[in-house]
Amino acid sequence: xxxxxxxxxxxxxxxxxxxxxxxxxxxxxxxxxxxxxxxxxxxxxxxxxxxxxxxxxxxxxxxxxxxxxxxxxxxxxxxxxxxxxxxxxxxxxxxxxxxxxxxxxxxxxxxxxxxxxxxxxxxxxxxxxxxxxxxxxxxxxxxxxxxxxxxxxxxxxxxxxxxxxxxxxxxxxxxxxxxxxxxxxxxxxxxxxxxxxxxxxxxxxxxxxxxxxxxxxxxxxxxxxxxxxxxxxxxxxxxxxxxxxxxxxxxxxxxxxxxxxxxxxxxxxxxxxxxxxxxxxxxxxxxxxxxxxxxxxxxxxxxxxxxxxxxxxxxxxxxxxxxxxxxxxxxxxxxxxxxxxxxxxxxxxxxxxxxxxxxxxxxxxxxxxxxxxxxxxxxxxxxxxxxxxxxxxxxxxxxxxxxxxxxxxxx
Length: 411
Ligand SMILES: Cc1ncc(COP(=O)(O)O)c(C=O)c1O
Description:
Layout: H1 15-25, E1 37-41, E2 44-47, E3 52-55, H2 58-61, H3 70-80, H4 95-106, E4 110-114, H5 117-136, E5 144-148, H6 157-161, H7 166-169, E6 179-182, H8 187-193, E7 199-204, H9 220-231, E8 234-238, E9 262-265, E10 277-281, H10 283-286, H11 302-316, H12 319-338, E11 343-348, E12 353-357, H13 364-373, E13 376-377, E14 379-381, E15 385-388, H14 396-410
Parallel strand pairs: 3-13, 5-6, 5-7, 7-8, 8-9
Antiparallel strand pairs: 1-2, 2-3, 4-10, 9-10, 11-12, 12-15, 14-15
Helix pairs in contact: 3-11, 4-11, 12-14
The protein binds pyridoxal-5'-phosphate.
Residues 60, 116-118, 121, 152-154, 205, 209-210, 238, 240-241, 266 line the site of pyridoxal-5'-phosphate (PLP).
């Protein structure tokens, strides 16, 4: 971090003025930490006054490849000189190859591109229901989707209908029916829920990110796969946050050698440049949709598809997954070995950690504030947990630099 007291060049607004404008004229649906970023490169960001910070959150894994990754920016620049948007009324020369390359990366058959993670989840819900009625033979409007307690799948009215977080859920009803919730990680509860013949899908985050980086017990995903197969239920893995290298494999499901019927992807699929999401699934499932039944003006646009292709190509090298696994072992190893008694638990997988404080340690947010002063950006979740998800491209020395400061602030 540069020295405090740096002057803002004449004509530009200070961080304080910019935050004031946002607070005065913006909706108050977030409470961001008080840093106003105006420039970023790799794992580092710079604020309006020129102070530098190490980004240990990477936009909740949307920046897996770092800020302004040059490979991705080159693709964007080149695509801007060709075509950016066609809508799906016509073909574009990027979507077909993107679909082929992403399907191959996922070892699945078909891709349905959208924009945000929530839209992709909505898409997976519609696909599951349509598959239930047209293939499984569930009576019309009776389909049930099983979800998990503590889930986070986005913010639409249907998705918040099955959120168990009162902040996300309450006051936004009436709610969409057709969802039941089971405890995350509980195989027997899942088995019982799947006994209902009208269940069409089990929608699950392989690691629950927003809940505080909750890793299920070993064998849970494998057991879920087996139960779903046994009961003729789709396994839908929402890897919007856990996928694309974050946990040391391309997909978290791979840790248990599981192939879901559908992946829901987003965040890093857009390379930190623009929103790109997709559902990738088996032919029998994604293939149920007929023309006109679903879509998006921007879904599959050539700029997004070009960025997505480059993301797929970068992941195909395995380099990011390797970095995530190696650096993640170091991250979790240091946190677990050096954490003071203020820390109740360190959870995580790959380059992703949830550091849960004991209640007496006070709010996690206070520690995040203090880390800003040390030039490290992290984020609290659910009052007691600090979330760490640096870009997978972070230098090992930078990671240690941040860890030194985080461990000091935890003391
Ligand atoms: C697992 C998961 N699914 C879906 C979403 C929603 O994505 P978006 O914010 O792009 O709508 C998120 C966002 O954090 C997520 O973590």
